Amino acid sequence: MGRIPCCEKENVKRGQWTPEEDNKLASYIAQHGTRNWRLIPKNAGLQRCGKSCRLRWTNYLRPDLKHGQFSDAEEHIIVKFHSVLGNRWSLIAAQLLGRTDNDVKNYWNTKLKKKLSGMGIDPVTHKPFSHLMAEITTTLNPPQVSHLAEAALGCFKDEMLHLLTKKRVDLNQINFSSPNLNHNNPNNFNQTVDNAAGKMKLDNDGNGIMKLWDMGNGFSYGSSSSSFGNDERNEGSASPAVAAWRGHGGIRTSVAETAAAEEEERRKLKGEVMEQEEIGSEGGRGDGMMMMRRRQHDQHQQHAFNVDNDLWNLQADDLINHMV
DNA sequence: AACGGGTGCAACCGCGAATCC
DNA sequence: GGGATTCGCGGTTGCACCCGT
């Protein structure tokens, strides 16, 4: 027995929406709201399924949507939140006024992933590839390691050659280590991260998905403050997260220093999460995680993303890298 | 001008969660 | 309490457009 379809497949139009359909949907929703998506196409005189209508409305027709290029500040927010939340596109999009999860997802997949890869950072773990290789060498047997390393280095070499021949990048001008300028008031941004992270659900074994905690060894990548300062496109309409980010240029996180410490921390976190989830169940799911994370931030005063990296100032196209 | 590959984005699909009855 | 229904999310696909050859 299969799943019940969301609508009758026959008599339902698919594919691109016409301006006429858009008008019908928009004017119907303006009058009646979005209470029941199944009934909306029927009542609005559309031969579409409710799901298609909802998608069209939320991703395109909603009047509060912002269309067009992502600003540098928005780009940074996406990367930062992705490092904390993973592919929780709706949560990330919630930090950017007028952007949908689909927008963010598309932008990540088409631009940001390549940009991070080009910087030598794994877009999944937000760790440098060199760090990942080091981890692999500690977990695999020597024969496996040598083969893997050989293959990976070959890949990397090809990519670097491709990158450098496509666009000449003066690596001497890239600053990997200058300290960040301003940590005066990171609290606003932390709060926003916490709020978003507070909505995270637990994974199957009960551990929170704490990618930020895994970014050990002091590695970080971040913005050049000048790139924010020069960004005029988003002035006046920035979301709280963007505004907070502009204010300080960094985000605090905890860092487990060693594997043993990480394990200990995970164990503690798990305990706290379980405890807070119980408390949170009275006041709404996710509250416990939020409180726990805030406490963690207070306990550990180290910063991730706190290093200026001028690679951010390069266009994504300059950093094209097809390494997975 | 024609072709082919790459890119960006709108739209679809399937699943799990939430809600309704 | 449990099945049916609806909603929301993340992954994937399809296609129009662009650009280099």
Automatic annotation (TrEMBL):
<dbReference type="InterPro" id="IPR009057">
    <property type="entry name" value="Homeodomain-like_sf"/>
</dbReference>
<dbReference type="InterPro" id="IPR001005">
    <property type="entry name" value="SANT/Myb"/>
</dbReference>
<dbReference type="InterPro" id="IPR017930">
    <property type="entry name" value="Myb_dom"/>
</dbReference>
<feature type="domain" description="Myb-like">
    <location>
        <begin position="62"/>
        <end position="112"/>
    </location>
</feature>
<dbReference type="GO" id="GO:0003677">
    <property type="term" value="F:DNA binding"/>
</dbReference>
<keyword id="KW-0539">Nucleus</keyword>
<dbReference type="GO" id="GO:0009555">
    <property type="term" value="P:pollen development"/>
</dbReference>
<dbReference type="GO" id="GO:0005634">
    <property type="term" value="C:nucleus"/>
</dbReference>
<dbReference type="GO" id="GO:0048658">
    <property type="term" value="P:anther wall tapetum development"/>
</dbReference>
<keyword id="KW-0217">Developmental protein</keyword>
<dbReference type="Pfam" id="PF00249">
    <property type="entry name" value="Myb_DNA-binding"/>
</dbReference>
<dbReference type="InterPro" id="IPR015495">
    <property type="entry name" value="Myb_TF_plants"/>
</dbReference>
<keyword id="KW-0805">Transcription regulation</keyword>
<feature type="domain" description="HTH myb-type">
    <location>
        <begin position="9"/>
        <end position="65"/>
    </location>
</feature>
<keyword id="KW-0804">Transcription</keyword>
<feature type="region of interest" description="Disordered">
    <location>
        <begin position="266"/>
        <end position="287"/>
    </location>
</feature>
<keyword id="KW-0677">Repeat</keyword>
<protein>
    <recommendedName>
        <fullName>MYB80</fullName>
    </recommendedName>
</protein>
<feature type="domain" description="HTH myb-type">
    <location>
        <begin position="66"/>
        <end position="116"/>
    </location>
</feature>
<feature type="domain" description="Myb-like">
    <location>
        <begin position="9"/>
        <end position="61"/>
    </location>
</feature>
<keyword id="KW-0238">DNA-binding</keyword>
